Amino acid sequence: MNGSFKTKTKNKNKGLKLSSPYLVWSLIFIVIPLFMVLYYAFTTENGTFTLENIKGLASLDVLNSLLISVLYAAIATLLSLILAYPLAYYMSTVSKISQRTMIMLAMLPMWMNLLIRTYSLMLILENNGIINNILKALNLPKAQLINTPGAVILGMIYNFLPYMILPIYSIMTKFDYSVLEAANDLGANGFQRFKRIILPMSMPGVISGITMVFVPSVSTFYISQKLGGAKTMLIGDMIERKFQGEVNYNVGASLSLILMVLILISMAIMNKFSGDEEQEVLM
Amino acid sequence: MKKNIIELKNITVAFGEEKVLNKLNLSIKNGEFVTILGPSGCGKTTTLRLIAGFANPNEGDILFNGENIIGIPPYKRSVNTIFQRYALFPHLNVYENIAFGLRVKKVPEKEIEERVSDVINMVNLKGFEKRDISKLSGGQQQRVAIARAVINRPDVLLLDEPLAALDAKLRKDMQVELKNIQKNLGITFIFVTHDQEEALTISDTVIVMNEGVVQQIGTPKDIYNEPKNAFVADFIGESNILSGIMKADFLTEFSGKEFTCLDRGFKENEEVDIVVRPEDVDIVPSLAGMLEGVVTSVNFLGVHYEIIVDIGGFKWMIQTTDEQKVGDKVGLNIEPDAIHVMKKSKYSNLYGDYSSFSDEIEPISFNNEGEI
Q1: Pair A239, A274 in one domain
Q2: Would you call B152 and A186 a contact, using CB atoms and an 8 Å cutoff?
Q3: Chains A and B: how many Cβ contacts under 8 Å?
Q4: Together in a domain, B249 and B281
Q5: CATH number for position A156
Q6: What is the DSSP code (8-state) at residue B134?
Q7: Using a CB-CB distance cutoff of 8 angstroms, which residues of chain B are in contact with residue A185?
Q8: Buried-most residue among A170, A217, B157, B219 (CB within 10 A)?
Q9: What are the contacts of A42-46 at 24+ separation with CB within 8 A?
Q10: Separation in Å, CA of B75 to nearest CA in chain A
């Protein structure tokens, strides 16, 4: 008994040593900045404590931005799920070689920087962009694509879709095929098998996919600026403007705080659905 | 005479060039405990999957109660399967796993409750209803798998090596339990295994398969005592298989001596295979026996000794309770009813002598210095 206890503490120490570079990193770049956000959010420019920053956010503008951000992110997440789920299922059923190729193709856009991807989308959607040039060549009327909510949502889907595909696919490849056969064997037709077995078994992957698409979508500012024009002001844009344009760290920090709380709440809701298996997939 | 519930007619299944089943013919009687026995790759699991509906033959017919069922999907067949690794639904608890078949058939909730509680009692899982599948032992998972299948009251239950993952003692208990369940339900069990001892213990009828072909169908006693060819004799139990000549009815010659036997109906001087089971040979003092040989190895197995005796270069295995020493000269006596004569087959001369126990091992060779 004593021996095994000793090995355990020893392993713990070893683990601590191994992870110490990252712990230092996260202290400097994650923990301290988080406290700085808190500090700025609850202080005036002179550094005295105040609740005015937070109170001042109770305006229609902010509420509007929050609502639009959540709405756009939710639509983008839902559409990503609709696109990714059948694809992931299909991928999990084909041969290993095809699986590798398809994963490659799904991952390929992720190797490019998000800014470049968004720029290229701009080129496609612009008033004199590729799509409108094609329409023109076909003697069709021009379409307003850029600077619309649709363009912003398209940008979110385009950029974050792989984060939906991967977790769902990875959980589906772990399915024991005989479990699916067992469902058929016990009398379930294709639809019942999907509803009662495949869907619930893939839920942890779906939940982590939703989290991984929703969170970056709800907080994005770049995509909305490039594809949504000045009209769409997402919460991310608002924060960016406070820091970059108005250089008002205190209001910016309180906006960030609200966004963080929003994300934490949505993650908590997600976790309620998924139990503890989700962690496995996220890792 | 019981009715045939399942008949496979001229079934061929090929994966690419390789024929897994080759013109297989098979009929299974209603209400029997039937075991399909064979080495891995013999086509037994494929046969099961054909009956379940997970695979379709390239050629041939599958009749279920006289009707062809090829093309009918698994969920419409009155057949349920117990899978090798149970294939329980990981996201459902014990109760919901068992209730699954009834739920998809939209059986009223009240009836589901009654039937689930019945089968849970039958497999002794009372109190485990709310338990997570992952928190069950192998034996308990096995019971859930049985309950989940039999609750649907299938006409035929297919069992794909269901006991392979259990330890030896639990396995024996489960064999008895399966047999009892089958008797009580009165339905047909088709049990697939590569374990010959299990097959003999559990079955009414044993179907021995190899290379996609049925080698022999019979009761466990038939299969053991009257194997049809050298493959069956070798696969079921231990056996000394020798080449011999049938001199006349009731008279055969092998190992250079003539023996009285109980077999007849062969041509005069027909070449045959002779099977002598190790437990049927008596060891007597040297010169007093019908055959003479030298003991080359002695293994103590608890119940008896397993002795290898070299007779004219052929290594016999003999099971006896008398200890012998390596190098001893001994005599062997073989009674007429211990000799079983078989027609020559393509398996002749492939098996037989006990230079090694399996056909796969290559003896380790030592060089002069005693190094490997």
Answers
A1: yes
A2: yes
A3: 65
A4: yes
A5: 1.10.3720.10
A6: G
A7: 52, 54, 74-75, 79-81, 149
A8: A217
A9: A42/A254, A43/A250, A44/A250, A45/A250
A10: 4
Is residue B321 domain-resident?
yes
Of residues A46, A64, A77, A66, the one with CA closest to residue A257: A66
Residue A196 Cα, gap to closest chain B Cα (Å): 9
Q: Are residues A176 and A211 in the same domain?
A: yes
Check whether residue B180 and residue B249 sit in a common domain: no
CATH of the domain at B92: 3.40.50.300
B91/A contact by beta carbon, under 8 A: yes
B101 and A CB contact within 8 Å: yes
Q: Is B56 on the interface with A (CB under 8 A)?
A: no
Q: Which of A178, A183, A188 sits opposite B85 (nearest CB)?
A: A178
Rounded CA-CA distance B172/B123 in Å is 16
B194 and B252 assigned to the same domain: no
- A196, B84: Cβ pair inside 8 Å? no
Number of domains in chain B: 2
Q: What is the pLDDT of residue A8?
A: 60
Is it the case that residue A7 has pLDDT exceeding 80? Answer: no
Per-residue pLDDT at A6: 54
Q: Extract the tokens encoding B105.
A: 């058939």
Q: Which of residues 163-192 of A touch B (CB under 8 A)?
A: 176, 178-179, 181-189, 192
A81 contacts chain B (CB < 8 A): no
Please say if the pLDDT value at position A66 is more than 80: yes
Q: Which two tokens stand for residue A17?
A: 């040593």
- What is the sign of the dihedral through the CA atoms of B237, B240, B241 and B245? negative
Hey, is the C-beta of B154 within 8 angstroms of any chain A C-beta?
Answer: no
Name the burial class of residue B253, with classes exposed (0-12), middle (13-18) and buried (19+) by CB atoms within 10 angstroms of its CB.
middle
Q: How many other CB atoms are found less than 10 A from the CB of residue B168? A: 7
pLDDT at B128: 94
Predicted confidence (pLDDT) per residue in B62-82, tens digit: 999 999 999 999 999 999 999
Amino acid of residue B331 = G
Task: Rounding to the nearest 10 degrees, give the CA dihedral for residues B275, B277, B280, B284.
Answer: 80
What range defines the domain where residue A26 resides? Answer: 1-41
Structural domains of chain A, count: 2
Q: Which residues of A touch B104 (CB under 8 A)?
A: 183, 186-189, 192, 196
Rg (CA), chain A: 23
A10 touching B (Cβ < 8 Å): no
Query: Quick one: B309 and B333 in the same domain?
Result: yes
Residues of chain A contacting B100 with CB distance shorter than 8 Å: 183, 186, 188, 196
Is a pLDDT exceeding 50 seen at residue A283?
no
Residue B101 lies in a domain: yes
Q: Which of B53, B80, B90 is the closest to A186 by Cβ?
A: B80
Of the candidates B297, B309, B249, B244, the one whose C-alpha atom is nearest the C-alpha of residue B273 is B244
Phi, then psi, of B220 in degrees rounded to 5 = -55, -40
| pLDDT at site A280 | 44
Q: How confident is the model at residue A230 (pLDDT cuts 50, 70, 90)?
A: confident
- Give the range of the structural domain holding residue B284, as residue numbers without chain letter: 240-343
Residue spans of chain B under pLDDT 70: 1, 352, 357-372
